[in-house]
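Re: Re: ligand-bound prediction request (bumping)

Still looking for help on this. To restate: I need the protein modeled with 5-O-phosphono-beta-D-ribofuranosylamine bound, output as structure tokens. Inputs repeated here so nobody has to scroll up.
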Amino acid sequence: MAKKLRIGVLASGGGTNLQSIIDGCTNGDIDGQIVVVISNNPEAGALNRATNAGLTTECINHRNFSQRQLFDNAVVQKLLDNRVELVVLAGFMRIIGQQFLDAFPGRIINIHPALLPAFPGLHVQQKAIDYGARFSGCTVHFVDGGVDTGPIIIQAVVPILDTDNDDTLSARILDQEHKIYPQAIQWFAQGKLKVDGRKVSIIGHTQKPDAVLINPPLNS
Ligand code: GRF
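Reply:
Sorry for the wait, this slipped through. Here it is.
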């Protein structure tokens, strides 16, 4: 059997994306194993999910560090100790510094609950509603030095309904996050992601030119 990709997951919150990755590794959708789950938040539900799955967990509380650099160093060291090959940010609410990026070049990915490059940053579901956008969605991308600016791997689109609030839109987006993140990780594990500047191609994968969405729907 081929060697499994060694995955390190960083999470700060509830951990539903972590769960989808745990499930993907268990059911064979991802040719990988999560070798460590790190959280900056001692209260993170993600830590419970990891423990329940029998995974190695580390809580590195950023509040215990006087500088971000020192916190980053501690996280990087844990990832290196566990021989992590892919760093997966799953609701990790800290900015990644340059030295962290340099330790894992082209090997850090993130999921963002909007259709980048629209609505980077925080509270983006409400921002998309307030803007009056007709669609939002989620984006898996490589991490670079900016905020949600790295090369895009895969996106899913959901409609924004007139009746939506932050919670209903977030839930609709989250359902899609749980589909596209395991897929992106599997492509990485298979060595199928080719990055050329800003553009990512998936080797041997066919796209559909008729994948068109219109919201609100046409009359007929
Ligand atoms: C997700 O919406 C993700 O896109 C964002 O933070 C949220 C994390 O949710 N970066 P969970 O902790 O995976 O449930």
